[in-house]
Amino acid sequence: MRVTPKKHLGQHFLKDLNIARQIAESLEATEPTKVLEVGPGMGVLTQFLLQNKMIDLKVVELDRESVSYLEENFPELEGRIVSGDFLKMDLTQCYEGKFCVIGNYPYNISSQIFFKVLEHKDQVPCCVGMIQKEVAERIASEPGKKAYGILSVLLQAFYDIEYLFTVHENVFDPPPKVKSAVVRLRRNSVQKLDCDEALFVKVVKTAFNQRRKMMRNSLQGFFEKGSPVLENDVFMRRPEQLGVAEFVELTNLISKCQTFT
Questions:
Q1: Residue of 162, 141, 114, 118 whose CA lies nearest to 240
Q2: Which helix H or strand E contains 117, and what residues bound it?
Q3: Which letter does DSSP use for residue 103 in this model?
Q4: Phi and psi (nearest 5°) for 162?
Q5: CATH number at residue 130
Q6: Following DSSP, what letter does each residue of 198-261 receive, concatenated?
Q7: E strand residue ranges, 51-179
Q8: Could you report the per-residue pLDDT of 28-46, keeping only the tens digit for each?
Q9: Other Cβ atoms closer than 10 A to 87
Q10: What is the pTM of this model?
Q11: Distance between CA atoms of 222 and 170, rounded to whole angstroms?
């Protein structure tokens, strides 16, 4: 039995075992670790995760054909296959306590997967994923770079991010039209931002939605017309020039000046 890659699910099955081994080893699980693999497909990555006796593995798979394949070919996964949509799941039902997330993520939902991880940041100390190279560069980008954006700021607020290695198209079936890359996110020491976190997210998204403009233009909706606060030097800059700490300061400034709830 072989699973047919489904375009609507964004499936590109990894066929290079060395790459799969490298991804599994990127977790660096040298002590007992709960791990949730997203989208295992035919288990190319799964097999290496199972070889590490430190890993307590569960997998979540939306594709019923893949679930059947895993049940048939990986009897050791009995009772550990969750059939469903990772993005719609209550992750607290997968594991109690902390767990790591790993996978060869579908390109079309990779950003959503990272936002889901971010929602469960207190449960997920580490996340490893193979994603589109462009998205990997965006996540790991430093301020001032062209790739730096919403995902960069929101994820870097709570995770230290490493771009590990690039993966070429020919190691997949079917080959995607773009290169891939593997990234690793490790939870940093920040428990809570020193600002209104909901407003922080809104400020970051609003600023980058008009990233070519200075922030005095993109963020003017947060203030009364003609507010003198917009003459502050920070509003003369573009969003990609600000690091996480500066966005926190900006959020606090906006919070003090807001005239609406």
A1: 141
A2: helix 110-119
A3: E
A4: -120, 130
A5: 3.40.50.150
A6: HHHHHHHHHHHHTTTS-HHHHTGGGS-TT-GGGGSGGGGS-GGG--HHHHHHHHHHHHHH----
A7: 55-61, 81-83, 100-104, 126-132, 159-167, 172-173
A8: 999 999 999 999 999 999 9
A9: 13
A10: 0.92
A11: 48
